[in-house]
Amino acid sequence: MEPSPTTALVELVRRAQGRDEAAQCELIKAYQRRIAGFIYAITGRSDSVEDIAQQIFIKMIRALDRLEAPEQFESWLFRLARNTCIDHLRRQKLRRIFLPFGPEHENVPEPDGAVDAEEFDALRHALSQLRPQDRALLALVREGRSHGEISETLGITVAAVKARLHRAREHLRQHYQPNHEA
Amino acid sequence: MKPEHHAWDCLGDHAASLISTGFAERTVCASRKAACTPLGQFFLSATTATICAAAVMLFFSQSTRVENSRNLAGWQEIASANDDLIPGQ
């Protein structure tokens, strides 16, 4: 009988916990796409996606020993990713206090071909109008995290998650205008 | 389906395209190198602690020696003064 995807994932996580580098590599390959999308939704910067993704996966490998329930790996990984992205944005904000930061640094143009759809550009613009915490919230929902998991991640009640999510979606809708120039 | 769903998919595809080939292998390798850092930090801390302990011990032994010789000189002075006070010597 074929093992279920969850069983296979738990098995893979267990092997990675046992310092099996092939399993760690497999785990990274399985999640790198989703983590990249998650990072981009929060930071909105193409130039830092790979760096932050690497930080997240290095943290993941080093902290895997402490993960007691491998079946909760996915929500644990996205919590790690969310915290790393928020830390990155905080550090960036601090750096701007000490370094002269002009608008030309703030709005680094996307490389050619990166923005291939008007809708995509509109979403980028709309997300940039939200607070990083709200962007993270929307990205967590987009990644299929339940309200319960998000409440654990953020340390708030499920009702508060629902309220914040409703607000974040409203803001996103207000700023999401694919038919207009962003 | 919400209107921005397609845009979210585009965003995910774009982000995924930013990850270069061999990323997983490079990350595992970087993690291996990073794992050496705590050991290096431990050795650095141990070396610093040893140097500090040696410096403290050196200072302590030096100051003890100076103190002892000063005390000894004081006692010798008292002893010779005492000898002078004893009659018939």
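qc> DSSP finds two helices and no strands in chain B.
qc> done
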